[in-house]
Amino acid sequence: MVRLFSAGFSLSILQDLFRVEYVTGIAQQDSKSLNCGVFVAVYAEYLSEGLGIPSSGINAQYHHMRYATLLCKYGSVKAEKEYFSENDDPPRPRSSFTQKEKICALHIE
């Protein structure tokens, strides 16, 4: 309900200002975490690679570790080849990443 007040005037509007719809069975972050960055990154990767977006089951811890490893490897290769700007780095081939049901270790070559 919304109540509007001004000098000598009061108006009550009994209507919903917006509709809330609760959806179940979708990927969500832990209730203790307010950081949705990994979910945004995963969705962006899935969309850019043309992959189907899963409705649930995104393992945030796995993707945190995966992205950290990729960034570390990228930095090492960039330093090794003495690239000094992003423009000198050759484009990488598109990957066909799909997460397996259970991954015990992460190894990126």
Write up what this structure looks like.
The protein is an alpha+beta fold and 109 residues long. The protein has one domain (2-88). The protein is 30% helix and 9% strand. It has helices spanning 37-48, 60-80, and strands at residues 2-6, 9-13. Strands 1-2 form a two-stranded antiparallel ribbon. Strand 1 and strand 2 (9-13) form a beta hairpin. The protein is elongated. This is Ubiquitin-like protease family profile domain-containing protein.
Which terms summarize this structure?
single chain; 109 residues; two-stranded antiparallel sheet; 2 helices; Ubiquitin-like protease family profile domain-containing protein; Papain-like_cys_pep_sf
Low-confidence stretches: none
Helical region count? 2
Overall strand count: 2
Largest sheet: 2 strands, antiparallel
Domain module count: 1
Measured on Cα atoms, how large is the radius of gyration? Answer: 23 Å
**Cross-sheet strand order for the largest sheet:** 1-2
% residues in beta strands: 5-15%
Tell me, rounded to a whole number, the average pLDDT: 74
The secondary structure category is alpha+beta
Oligomer: single chain
